[in-house]
From TrEMBL:
The lineage of its organism: Eukaryota, Viridiplantae, Streptophyta, Embryophyta, Tracheophyta. This is Neprosin PEP catalytic domain-containing protein. Keywords: Signal. Residues 1-27 form the signal peptide. The keyword Signal applies. Residues 103-112 have a biased composition (Basic and acidic residues). The keyword Signal applies. Pfam families: Neprosin (PF03080), Neprosin_AP (PF14365). It comes from Microthlaspi erraticum. Residues 79-112 are annotated as: Disordered. It comes from the Eukaryota. Residues 159-413 form the Neprosin PEP catalytic domain.
Length: 413
């Protein structure tokens, strides 16, 4: 072969290699793009299927539907069809009759039950039904995790701010507690991130702050992720395994049994307190029925909301070993510094009545189903430069404390 032909042959081989390389490199991205376009809709389809399956479990068929002025839809669901009775230990049951009230309970000066926006128009659910705030696809799509929708992030210790949870609480421990009662004023604290919340509540706690923690919780909260707005809302919560796999807010899983046809758990509260203005508080009582062992929740002047069945729990089958009252926020440290999400009114405890948040008339239920004053209340703030707490006792309010704060400030960064 002549040198000229050899050169031509080599050039052809090089060109063929270049063309082959160019083809494979240009062909590769479209293939990977096609795969990605195929996978992406598939993931979304699976997510929507999961959401709709959960919505079917949460949203039960209603006999009446009420539209609230704040955009909520309230479904009146037959009480024996509520989500609670999907729980394996509650299948086939019906709501229990009202229990014996704790001795020493005084209904005077308690708050009135018409405290929710949806019912202010005079609407109510028929007897034999309960009002349930309808959960929507939008609610679940806002959640950081569809599978954990309606659940708290695990809280490791009473005095811990792990996972960004920060507290300012009054608490008692070291004895046997069969319930607790308090009144707390309601505010609209600023919550700056969808994934943060601000609340005020009562905790009844048993077990250790490890995998076996049992809690029963009720109060008010502002949670944009859960509700899609910044209204303070009445809520309940429970867990029997330290927030891992059991329990949820309100009626978003099987567990809490509602008996009241006029209060919607998770619905917006109205009116609310104002700075240097009128103060509105809600009174809550949680106690263990001596006869059947269930933990009942009462709001205001004798209005029973429902109960947590004793079968949900391990340690709380007997009694609580700690009770807490007060505030909690989630701090996601936006922009690398402490959140400006407010606790309570957004003002420190030292500002006092009409300016700071309070919890008053703190009481316990003892082994004899009797309401008694708290004698050994301790107070604790995880980060007092951000949110603080100050306790006191007087003749009108009994045991009380002021708490809260603005979050980020010159001393809290």
């Amino acid at each position: 072969m002549s040198s000229c032909l050899k050169l031509t042959f080599i050039i052809l081989l090089v060109l063929l290699c270049l063309l082959s390389s160019s083809f494979s490199s240009s062909a590769s991205p479209p293939n990977s793009t096609e795969e990605s376009e195929t996978l992406r809709p598939q993931k979304e389809i699976q997510k929507l299927k999961l959401i709709r399956k959960q919505l079917q479990m949460i949203n039960k068929p209603a006999v009446k539907t009420i539209q609230s002025s704040d955009g909520d839809t309230i479904d009146c669901v037959p009480s024996h069809h509520q989500p609670a009775f999907d729980h394996p230990s509650l299948h086939g049951q019906k709501p229990m009759d009202p229990p014996e009230m704790p001795k020493g309970y005084d209904q005077e000066n308690e708050s009135h039950e018409d405290f929710q926006l949806w019912s202010l128009s005079g609407e109510s659910c028929p007897e034999g039904t309960i009002p349930i705030r309808r959960t929507t696809e939008h609610d679940m799509l806002r959640a950081s995790s569809v599978r954990r929708f309606g659940r708290k992030i695990r809280r490791v210790r009473r005095d811990s701010s792990s996972n960004g949870h920060e507290h300012a609480v009054g608490y008692v421990s070291g004895s046997q507690y069969y319930g607790a009662k308090a009144s707390m004023n309601v505010w609209t604290p600023r919550v700056i991130s969808q994934y943060e919340f601000s609340l005020s509540q009562i905790w009844v706690i048993a077990g250790s702050f490890a995998d076996d923690l049992n809690t029963i919780e009720a109060g008010w909260q502002v949670s944009p992720e859960l509700y899609g707005d910044t209204n303070p809302r009445f809520f309940t919560y429970w867990t029997s395994d330290a927030y891992q796999a059991t329990g949820c807010y309100n009626l978003l899983c099987s567990g809490f049994v509602q008996t009241n046809n006029r209060i919607a758990i998770g619905a917006a509260i109205s009116p609310v307190s104002s700075y240097k203005g009128g103060q509105f508080d809600i009174s809550l009582l949680i106690w263990k029925d001596p006869k059947h062992g269930h933990w009942w929740l009462q709001f205001g002047s004798g209005t029973l909301v429902g109960y947590w069945p004793v079968s949900l729990f391990t340690h709380l089958r007997e009694h609580g070993n700690m009770v807490q009252f007060g505030g909690e926020i989630v701090n996601t440290r936006p922009s690398g510094s402490h959140t400006s999400t407010q606790m309570g009114s957004g003002h420190f405890a030292g500002e006092g009545f009409g300016k700071a948040s309070y919890v008053r008339n703190l009481q316990m239920v003892d082994w004899d189903n009797t309401l008694v004053p708290i004698s050994n209340l301790r107070v604790l703030a995880d980060h007092p430069n951000c949110y603080d707490i100050r306790g006191g006792v007087n003749r009108v309010w009994g045991n009380y404390f002021y708490y809260g704060g603005p979050g980020k400030n010159s001393k809290c960064s």
